[in-house]
Structure formats: structure tokens, C-alpha cells
Amino acid sequence: MDLLAQSLRHAFIDQRQLGHAQYDPELIINQPDENIFLLNTLQEELDTSETFTFSVAFVTESGLNTLKTHLFDLHQRGIKGRLITSNYLDFNSPDIFKALLKIPNLEVRISDKEAFHAKGYLFEHKDHTSFIIGSSNLTNHALKTNYEWNIKLTTYHHGAIIHQMQAHLDKEWASAQPLTEDWIEAYANSFQPPKYRDTSILLDPAKNFIVPNKMQQPALDSLIELRQNGADRGLVIAATGTGKTYLAAFDVLETKPEKVLFIVHREQILHSAMASFKRVMHTEPDDLFGFYTGNKKDSQAKYIFATQQTITRDQHLHQFDPEEFDYILVDEVHRAGSASYQRIFDYFKPKFLLGLTATPERTDGYNLYELFDYNIAYEIRLQDALEADLLAPFHYFGVTDYEKDGELISETTQLKNLILDERVNYVMDKLTYYGLDKDKVKGLVFCSRNEEAKSLSDKFNARGYKTVALSGSDSQEVRTKQVNRLTSGLLDYIFTVDIFNEGIDIPEINQVVMLRNTQSSIIFVQQMGRGLRKHDGKEFVNIIDFIGNYKNNYLIPVALSGNSNRSKDAMRKTTVNTNFISGLSNINFESIAKERIFDSINAVKLDSMKELKEAYLGLKNELGRVPMLIDFETTNSFDPYLLANKKDNYPAFLASIKESDNTLSKAANDILKFLSREILPGKRAHELVLLNELAKESVDTLSLAKIQTILAKHDLSHDPITVQSVVRTLSTDYYAGSSKKTYQPGQVVTIVDEGITLSPGFQSAKKDSTFLHHLNDLITTATLLNDGYDKSSDLTLYQKYGRRDALRLLKWETQLVDQNIGGYTQDKARKIFTIFVTLDKGDDFTGAQVAYEDALLDPQTMTWFTKAPRTLASPEVKILQDADDWQIHMFIKKDDDEGTEFYYLGEVTPDVSTITQLEKPSGDGETRNVVEMNLHFKETIPRNLFNYLQ
């Protein structure tokens, strides 16, 4: 009772009193800029509930989609819930009632109350009940983007308010009608949708002419500026569906060329491209537009739309004068490295060349940016396009692929197992649960091989679907015919492997199904992008991704976030915190599918020379110069720490890939090696500020008083203990054991009476301009990384630290070897206690090792065990029994697969009433004394991190 009473005092009597996050009343307002949504709270409450009841007037399919994976996971745990809704104003469509009927653990009833307008969500937990009441219906807009007010309250099960609510809900439930197929059929017959339905019109009705959108206008302005500055070519990088073809047409309208050539990779896109141009240049007569393809040669037209396959042939290429076209546009220009495209670029000499692509990244070494003189006229990627409302919102469902007898679908699964009837039925069940109804769906299914696509199409057809499989062997005419059948409703799905990755425009697509391994983040985005074009009447697109036991699952968060820096921690955060996506789009994973992604992240090696070299060359091509570490960080293209530490330092890495000669002295290399490993992560700003000062030509000694002044100018702590910690780091005196041996040759300073002096190695190295260039790059990069840390505190909540980092930043005088720390250590003089917990320790315990059962109980409490053997009389236990004047810092990681770093979860306080001495079995068959206790976190663990660590 104390915790709830504490929260009530905090909320209603005195805000200065500390509350308890789990019980604190909370006003919930959607704040997209902060990634705070009512949806987050609903999902968190659902995930931990034992049963739930929703009472909401309005429900939409997009609103229900945000909760489907959570409801599925609850179903797997045997947890059921209730939903009361209505037919008030005919807002709820028959389709949403059909979708609700498919949720097996959700019982739905329809209130017949006139003007039913309730909006409440109740969640029963083991020891308390939470409820949310306010203005939000179960719609995507209300849960994410609308300005809504909702209040969350928590009560124990015997509270009066919850009894009132439950009694009212039970009464309402008893008087409401059960949702049945017969009820839906009767409702559909009389249904008249209101004019103000909660949906988005995603494409303006056709007009006689159009104007540039949010992407096209700034891109046009940039192209005009390029030409004014004398450029004769430019590259536009824009996500699929943002209107690149219209942009090209607008720019042609602006420049008024005498003759234009528009080159595409596939004939299928030519007709829609010409239609887009005609719509923009609506005053131009039709006879000025022509095709140059295998079947048609309108070489005299003013605006020629040609396929690359045709015009690249010599007999066609030489039909034209090299300077015949004032303006040439190339769609999907990322293909420009091929010999056929090179013939085109080498032959024609236009006044202006425009390249269009959604994916400029190349793995073949070709430098697309160089072709366009590094003139990037405009760039808008997926996240930005969603935020600008240029694309249809998407609902991504990461679902678990089929498993039989412990065998998971993987890269090596034989065809016969991919097309098993059991897998087909499993896939169809998932599509029924997550997807659109058969009479509404217009979908693409991406498979791993053509044989699988054909067999699955046949099996879907045998079960009542209308589908076809297409491959590269099908002619353009066949493909066009089948696409037309899909868009007209004569087909439900087209099964394929990769022929629809690009070069095709089907705005009607409203569902994309991925039944294959994610080969690359580029292909993932291309395939997902097939459904992102807006279309009249399309509210959203479903992306249903079947996640097997694939090695490349780690690429899923990379693709969804657009973050390609190869940081494992960033990948984990993206998978856990899926609310980063803009607007009305949503990302949700089933829990088992999420675990498969984590397994892939843990297992993958991201610092192979192949990966590093590809990342390096990719950025070098984009910049047109050798990139520095800061370039990788500012472009978010790769983790600079991986690049700097693959070899001894970044100059050594450049030398290893033959990009430069490492002419640095041994001392300079040793210094950069030390700084790259220990200082580059930017976990503390003090060393960076001091390094900047020491790099100055005039500086060779600094007094401790001067160091304090320097740190104070940067608003950094500068007490004597902090100053000693900083100088002992740069002198390498802090380090011990193998670390000391490794780092001592790279020491920056030596400690002298009342100050520091430059080490001989650093004194010599800073005379070398190349060394200073790399040193400044390292400092600048680390300073940028330090922006993610709290400069007013030694440690930053929820950042990751290794044991060595943690003790250094907590100002231990000397490093303790990890083995000597084990699970915890303490500085008795300063009364600082640090605890390092690995929650999943595995099953391999030998000798005297004890199978500790440390566990997070809730976001503010954990159970923790001391080392063995320990008793209530052991020194550290006595400290914890009377720890009021101690700082106790908690660091936790999920398992050893995460590496050597732990999440810092802040300070904890022992619950003295729970401190108990126990006997625990050990690996040698004996039992050993340990002490168990509960620890309370001073700061509540964010729910997403808590769920991940569990």
C-alpha cells in the first residue's frame, strides 16, 4: 500500500514528494516531436495485463492494427480481454467488425445505447488495476497524432473507484449484443458511412494541372541554383513514391529545352512516365510526345521516352546527334555503372543531365556521385518522406515464420519445406489475422526463389485465392496484363522474387508480404516501397514480414530506421523502441520474431574488413574525398568506433585498404590507438576539452589549477577528484594489467608535481600535421558522440558502459581487472558501490559457481543475489543493510551475447526487509550461502528497455 499512497501524495497533495512510476497518475498527450503517444502506454499496459476491457465508441482498422501483435502475444499466454463498442453514427465500418471477429482472445459486444461515446481502457494486473479515460477512441489518429487528453490512474483491487468502474462495465457488457457474423451482415446492409470518417484521403482528385509537392518544390529550387552556378548535371535521391517523375517534368517545364530524352530501365514504366509529363505540361500537344522502344521509334518527337535496352544499341544510339538532346533524364540511375548505361553517358552531350534514384548505394564499387560531379540537388529518404506526408502510412508486422518439430525456416530450408501444406495454411492464417480481407487485398508476395513463388501461388489458388506467379522469364506483355488484373480486382496477389523490386509503379498495392530472407536493407526498402505510393481511397498499406531463423535478420531494424551505422546497440534500440517512425505509420513485432532479430544482432560480425571497406568506399564516393571519422558520424553511415579500432587506429585502417600510406611515427600511432579505444566513444567530455588544449602548439605543461579553470570554462565538473581522474586517464596511470601494457606507449601526459607535462611521444607527435589532423578528427567525433551523455553527471541513465569505463567515470583511482570485480565492487572511502548484473547467465555452471537468479520484477524493483559464499555477517551485506549514505549504482545487460557493456540503470536502494540468507546449489553438487534482497531503482526503467532486458 505504501507505494500507491506515495504516488497519490505526489500527484494530488505535494508534487515534491517522490512518487512511484508504476502507480503515478499521468496526463497523456500525444507529443510526436518527443515520440510520446497514448499508443505507447496502451501497448505497455496490454503487455503486462492479466485481462483487459476496452469501452470505445469508435474503432478503425488502422487503430486495431497497432495492437494486433500485442494481442497475439497475449493469446499465446492464454490472456483474454473484452471490447465494448457501438454502431453510433455508423462510424465503425463493417470491415472493422470483421477484423475484430478474427482476434481469438478478444470478445466483442455492441452497445445499443443511443449516443454511445465512451473512451476508456481498463487493465487488470496481478496486484493492481490501471485505467485510462479521456478523449481517445481506438483509432490510429487518436492514438498517435491527434491532440488528445487522457488520464491514467492506478488502484489496488479493493479500491472504490475501480469497483464502480467494473460494476458499470459489467452492466454495460450484460446489456450489449455479442458481435457475430450475422450481426455484421445485417449492419453492412444498412451501413451508411459518415462524411467525416476518421480516415485520410491520400491522393488528391485528378486535376487539369498540378503543382509541386513538399519534396518537389525545394528540389526544383536546388536544380535551378545548380544550373545558375554552371552545373550541367544533378542527382536527386528520393524515396519511392515521392514523385520523382513529376519532379523531372516540372524541371523540364522550368528549363524549356528544345528536345528531351527520358530513359527508363523497363518499358512497363514508360507509359505512366509519359502520362505524368503530359499532366504537368498540359498545354503541349500529344503529338510532341513519343516512345523509343523495341516496338516504336518516335525519334522526331520533342519528348522521347526510351528504354535503356533499346537506345543503348549502336544502331539506335547513332540515330541521334550527340548534342541532339538539351535535357536527358535517367530514372533508376543507380544502374549507371553497367556497360550499357556507360555507352549512353559517353555518347550524349546534353546541356543538362538529371539522375533520379531512391537507392544510390552501390556494392559494385561504381561511383554514382562522381558521374554527377557530386551535385546532389536534393535528398529525401523514407523517414523524411513519411514525415512530410508524401507516402501512404504503413503498418509493419514482424511475424514469426513457420516452425515444425523445432525446425525453423532459414536460408538453407529446402524448397519442399517452404511449400509444405502446413506452412501454406500457417501463412494464410497469419494473413487472415494481420491482413486485409480477400475482397479488398491487392498484394505482392516476395519469395526466396521462383519455384517457391509458383508452388505457393498454386496452393493459394487451390484454397480459394486468385493469384499468379511472375518471374524474369515472363514477357513484358504478360507482366503488364497480370498487373492490370491485380489493380482491377481480378487477382488478390502476385507472387514473385525480385522483378518488382523497382521499375514498376502500382499505386493500388495495399499489402506487401515478405516470405524471404532480408538480403539487404536496400532490397527490403525497395520491396516495402512497392506499397507506399498514395492512391485514392488507400488509407494505409500492410507490410507483413515472416521472420525465420535468418542470419540477416539484423538488417530489418536497419532498413526500417534508415540507420546504417552498424551499431548493434542502435539496432537493438530500433527493435525495442518502434515509436520512432513518423506520422500514422506503425511498426510492431511478435515477441518471438523480435527475439529472432536479437539473436541475429548478437551473432552477426559487423566489423569484417569487407563490411568496413564497403562502408568506407560508399561514403568516399558520396563525398568525393577520403572521409574522416566525423563524416561517418554526421552522415550516420557507419559506426566510427568500428572503423577506428579494426586496426590500431583510423590511419592504420586506411593504410590496410591501400587508401593511404601510414607515415605516422610509432609514438603517434600508439597515441591514436589509445585514444581510439578509450576516448573516442565520448563517454566523458573532460578528456576531450583537455586534449584540445594540449594539442595547441604553445602548450607543453599545465598546472592542476589551470586544468580546473579550463574545465570550468566548459561548465564541466572540476573538483580535485575529477581532475585527478582525467589526468590519470590521459597518463594511462588509471589502467592496470594488460590494459596498462597496451596503452602506456600511447600516454598523452605524465603527471608531475601539481600538474602535468606532455609525454615525449605526444610532444614529438604533435609536430606532425598529419597526426594533428587525425587527432582533431578523433576529438571532434568524440565530442559529437558526447552529446548523448549528461555532462552534469558522472554517468548517464540508460547509456552503456563496460566495467572499466564505469569505474573510471566514477573516479576509481586504478582500474580493477574485470575478473576481480565479478558482480560488484565498492570504494569504501567514498562510499560508492557498483553492481554489474548479467540477467541470463546460461546453464553452464561448473565447480563452485552458483546459478544466481537475479531478475527484474517490475520497472522499479529487482531481485538480486550476492556472491557466494556470503552471509548476513559479510562486509558488503552489512553495507547494504545500512546503506543510507552510500551510492549504489546498477549496471545490467541481458546476456553475454551483448558483449561487455551494461545498461546503466541508475542508483538503487536495498529493501532491508527482504534481505535474506539462503543456501543455493552450485555446479559441484554442494550448496553455498548467498544473500538475496530486493533493490528499488530511484529512476523507473523505461518500459521498452525493461521489456527488452526481461
TrEMBL record:
<dbReference type="InterPro" id="IPR058403">
    <property type="entry name" value="DUF8090"/>
</dbReference>
<keyword id="KW-0067">ATP-binding</keyword>
<dbReference type="InterPro" id="IPR001650">
    <property type="entry name" value="Helicase_C-like"/>
</dbReference>
<dbReference type="InterPro" id="IPR006935">
    <property type="entry name" value="Helicase/UvrB_N"/>
</dbReference>
<dbReference type="InterPro" id="IPR050742">
    <property type="entry name" value="Helicase_Restrict-Modif_Enz"/>
</dbReference>
<dbReference type="Pfam" id="PF13091">
    <property type="entry name" value="PLDc_2"/>
</dbReference>
<feature type="domain" description="Helicase ATP-binding">
    <location>
        <begin position="225"/>
        <end position="378"/>
    </location>
</feature>
<keyword id="KW-0347">Helicase</keyword>
<dbReference type="InterPro" id="IPR025202">
    <property type="entry name" value="PLD-like_dom"/>
</dbReference>
<dbReference type="Pfam" id="PF00271">
    <property type="entry name" value="Helicase_C"/>
</dbReference>
<dbReference type="Pfam" id="PF26350">
    <property type="entry name" value="DUF8090"/>
</dbReference>
<dbReference type="InterPro" id="IPR021835">
    <property type="entry name" value="DUF3427"/>
</dbReference>
<feature type="domain" description="Helicase C-terminal">
    <location>
        <begin position="419"/>
        <end position="575"/>
    </location>
</feature>
<dbReference type="Pfam" id="PF04851">
    <property type="entry name" value="ResIII"/>
</dbReference>
<dbReference type="GO" id="GO:0016787">
    <property type="term" value="F:hydrolase activity"/>
</dbReference>
<keyword id="KW-0378">Hydrolase</keyword>
<dbReference type="InterPro" id="IPR027417">
    <property type="entry name" value="P-loop_NTPase"/>
</dbReference>
<dbReference type="GO" id="GO:0003677">
    <property type="term" value="F:DNA binding"/>
</dbReference>
<dbReference type="Pfam" id="PF11907">
    <property type="entry name" value="DUF3427"/>
</dbReference>
<dbReference type="InterPro" id="IPR014001">
    <property type="entry name" value="Helicase_ATP-bd"/>
</dbReference>
<dbReference type="GO" id="GO:0005524">
    <property type="term" value="F:ATP binding"/>
</dbReference>
<protein>
    <submittedName>
        <fullName>DEAD/DEAH box helicase</fullName>
    </submittedName>
</protein>
<dbReference type="GO" id="GO:0004386">
    <property type="term" value="F:helicase activity"/>
</dbReference>
<dbReference type="GO" id="GO:0005829">
    <property type="term" value="C:cytosol"/>
</dbReference>
<keyword id="KW-0547">Nucleotide-binding</keyword>
